[in-house]
Structures
1.
Amino acid sequence: MAASEENSALFPIFILTIMAIPIVPYTITKLCRFASKKSKSIHCQCSECSRSGKYHKSIFKRISNVSTCSNMTLLLLWVIMIILVYYIKTMSREIEIFDPFSILGLEPGAAESEIKKKYRRLSIQFHPDKNPDPEAHKYFVEYIAKAYQALTDPIARENYEKYGHPDGRQGFQMGIALPQFLLNIDGASGGILLLWIVGVCILLPLVIAVVYLSRSSKYTGNYVMHQTLSTYYYLMKPSLAPSKVMDVFIKAAEYMEIPVRRTDDEPLQKLFMLVRSELNLDLKNIKQEQAKFWKQHPALVKTELLVQAQLTRELAALSPSLQSDFRRILETAPRLLEELMKMAVIPRNAQGHGWLRPAIGVVELSQCIIQAVPLSARKSTGGSPEGVAPFLQLPHISETIIKKVARKKVRTFQELHDMDSQERADLLIQTGGLSSAEVQDIETVLDMMPSLTLDVTCETEGEEGMQEGDIVTIHAWINVKRGNGLIGALPHAPYYPFQKEENYWFLLADSVSNNVWFSQKVSFMDEAAALTAASKAIEESMEGSGANVKETSRAVAEAVEKVKGGSRLVLGKFQAPSEGNYSLTCYCLCDSWLGCDRRTNLKLKILKRTRAGTRGAVLADEGPIMEDGVEEDEDNEDGEYDDDYESEYSEDEEDDQNTKNKPQAANGTANKRGQGAESSGSDEE
């Protein structure tokens, strides 16, 4: 019985230990992350972003940020641990070491006469003949009598001095740290113990596995449904115009699950009339086009209208129920657009190339959604290939002000951006009619906008020149500069109701053949991860080229300085194509800002293979291979090249011809500081 009580007493200690093993390190990690957070603000400080409220840290928001599900769970577990510690501490007081002097209330080494005197006094108080209380009788027999015996009986005293107990050596016992009722296998307790073992050891892991597998079978690691990826893959076309990307984007399975209510019919009808000009309807057959639009699946109709409400900033027309659907659509939009981008650049042909045209369309749609700018605003107007879209992302700027500014020979966004701040302020105040406070907001946003620089090289490691079939290494540094000195920042997006980080896509593509040779997502937010990735990549590259330790250390140190200075390394490989001269284009596309994208030309000269054997297989991501010709035929039948607006990256035949006639740059080298910069050098054989 005593053994079972001791085992039961150990159960709280066992539970406390099991809880403390994961909770203590996890808590320390969370506290370190919280302490390492920078207090410097990385979001836009203009009045429009402030009025949006998404960056305003009210008391309620601060409490809600702290009282997350994980934090509350962690706090509850700590409360349980504190209760267990208190219980164990209280219980340990009850389990005291046998000390006869302490029991009799004597000092250690007391004389025998004092021992007998104290014993007689305690006997009067606790002896059964004097005190009928059962607890007094138990205390007298188990403690007072044994303590007196241990100090007066020679044998008992010898046992106490040797073994710490008057009864002599105590047997060694082993037990299980479980509650006492589970250790009693007689009667119903045996069944309870069996159920406990089955539940904890079998049923609990099984339930966790079933929940995990059911979720993982439905969602990807980016919390996007597998059905959405399948839909995007099969709807993606090589000649998909930017104006048609919307039709693919809204067919996500997440959006098909949006509830369709009869009460939404009237608000959607009103919204349709407000955004009808943005729906690419044929005005010659407007009635038939409208009927065709409303015959689509109701979820598709609602999704497209709500996305257009964001692009046209017609948020006042939304009912409360539509507001919740609107937020749901915009919250998942960045993840879906990222997966749609991956479906555009995923290898589709035998060479492992993706498609450039739809990739650019996806990025342009992402920019318009984040900045709440209509797709029609990207049409080339007044000598500006980008249209008025970049202007509209600035606060307090409308199409009327843009027209006024254009009369002063400022027709492109880049011209406005490159102006002196005082000159720009005078133009906006005197010509545009803006106030000084509004101009200050514009200056704040312009200081937030990134200015990108590309430095790209291609080489075959360990060999001179590039021959067909070689594995070519592309090495690119992307540098970002801002007027306010930040590196990673949240974009100015007052009409997008959620916080959104900037992401960039680096593409190496052949604009003539519409092929993407290499692609990679780039972020400037996590400097620690960028330092680790760049250091590891440079170290592996230097070791592969046979460099010594000193050279490798120097190269790694230079890479670390570049990353701290606002650069990110893009490193990848692709297989050299057949012999010939190739005029490629390196794109760096931002998914959040308009007018900040950069591109530079890169010329490659691939020689005929003279080295024996091949140096590697085709480097391509997993994915089915299909012939471009089949897709091209299908798309050309639909006439999808006749898009409604021209992307700023579209190149006509005249530009391609001029590119071919220009002197060729050094093989695989390009440096870009601004759009339109020319590469220099000559081909070397």
2.
Amino acid sequence: MERGQKEEEGGGGGGDAGGGPKYSWFTWFVVLALLGVWSSLAVVYFDIVDYDSVIGKLTAYDTDGDGDFDVEDAKVLLGLKEAGRAAVRDSPEETTAPQVLKSEETSEPVAETPELQENEPTSPEPPTAETVSESDLRPARDDEAAVPLPPAVEDDFVPDDPRGSVHPYEDEANTIDTTGVLVEEPPPQESVVEAGQYLASSKLSQEAEPGVEAEKQPEPEPEPEPEPQTETPKEAESVPESDGTAEKQAEEKLKEKAKKKKPKLFNKFDKTIKAEIDAAEKLRKKGKVEEALRAFETLVQKYPQSPRARYGKAQAEDDMAEKMRSNDMLQRAINTYREAAELPDVTPDLLKATLKRRAERQQFLGRMRGSLATLEKLVQLFPDDISLKNDLGVAHLLLGDNKGAKKVYEEVLAVSPGNGFAKVHYGFILKSENKIAESIPYLREGLESGEPGTDDGRFYFHLGDALQRVGDNSAYDWYELGHKRGHFASVWQRSLYNVNGLKAQPWWTPKETGYTDLVKTLERNWKTIRDEALAMMDQNTGVFIPEEENLREKGEWGQYTLWQQGRKVGNACEGVPKTCSLLEKYPEATGCKRGQIKFSVMQPGTHVWPHTGPTNCRLRMHLGLVIPKQGCKIRCTNQTREWEEGKVLIFDDSFEHEVWQDADSYRLIFIVDVWHPELTQYQRQTLSPI
């Protein structure tokens, strides 16, 4: 049995006394040969390989011009033999001939050979901040290949722009490089963008999202001081530009230039812990706010003298405050920003970013004086930064300190006379001082500059208003431009605090408003309302306060207010108790947080400039109480009407209106503002007061 087992295990049977293999080498050879034959037959029969295609590709390496790829061609590729010039073939049958190019210098046909290509890079190198120009963003023509986009680059964190409205962690890490060009991985095998399309960052094209091709758009025109670019000025000028794009392009290019200088946020010590900081920052960028905050808190405990870690903690707290909608958490962030700025060895860029963000968040919380102090410190630390001085001027304006703001902007314009941001704000201040003619050139030139921060509806509003007051009809050109830029609903309707989609018309009937009961109550009781108002006028107690909004060209205009912003004004109703009692039943009026209820008396010789109210959320009722027979009229848009005693006029004061009082005695009316009838109950409860 033992021998039998040995023979079975040894696989004898080959006749070899030494116990050779079960099958001979010849048998295996035959089997493999048969497999090869059957495989070849299968390939040919089922057409698995397109031999014509393969051979056609190989002939691109045909260096000796014999129409195929052979041993001689391989020798040339390996550098063992010199290539001979290929003959240019004219026969249409020779479809495998090498591609023919023309030399730009000699215009002679030159065969494209591997030798001509061996010095070219196999993949394009990413452009640097210095080499990327506007030509990199323009659409590729049919006869040229698009400039390939650079690959993603792991970059240091760039601080959030305090003026930006984008949430700090909405942009994922590695989506935008320091040049402002959208970063994408180039698609495999294809790098050509079809003509009429272009890819840009979302800041350059609001419609373009990362990874999405934008719709056909005109080429951006070069700025007065363009970056070096490959396209010629003629090409750039030949493309028409849609209204409103010039200012946006100027703004975005300034941002791009700022991005090109990468801020230095890491001091020497922070660089040694950069990997830990980057890991925490990545969590914040991805919106994992709680994890990011814990990570930065750990870093601050571990490295209490690290400015960058402290700054990251402040940003994470800032993000948490927004997520939680917590003022307490936001105050924590403001305090941490201060701590980061006060640490030793803070880099100038980090110090500036920290204090700017702190000032912005202080303003958000309503800490205007604290924000002003922070900005004053910034200006002391960075006296050459004009943008910081401009921000300081805005801080003064937010405090109602026009005098302080005016001084700041005068300093800015002394060193930078063409600064558009300073000009529009300085013009705004001059107009508030009733220096109408003097304000116009500053407002106009500031808007024309197209600089960031100038494209604001208030500046179009005040420039047009100033031009109207000096009798310049170009006011309506500016109103039209403001409308095209999206600041005004129309040339006539120029209110700035609006709810979209509300019915808009200058004059209304009681039935259209749905407030017929209120109108009937006012008209039925108009004499009672009139008598109470006259009694207050006769007492001469000073309850009629002169109009203070600088709306009069001339004359006298007094107002006695009962309700304002949805609340009673002090004890004003004590003088007219019946009138107030009548109105208590109508919350559409007494609860209108964006309106007033008041008496208005206007003396002869008064003219009220064309103006608009602040919001489209209300309608205004005028009840005639004492109306002279002639000389009193009101215009709303291009329709002029007159008051009647005991009758209610209803108009939308967000449309331009104007008043004349050319009678020989005073005019007295009762003004009742009501919510726009299309506002929902929720909107009426949640809209902010005006």
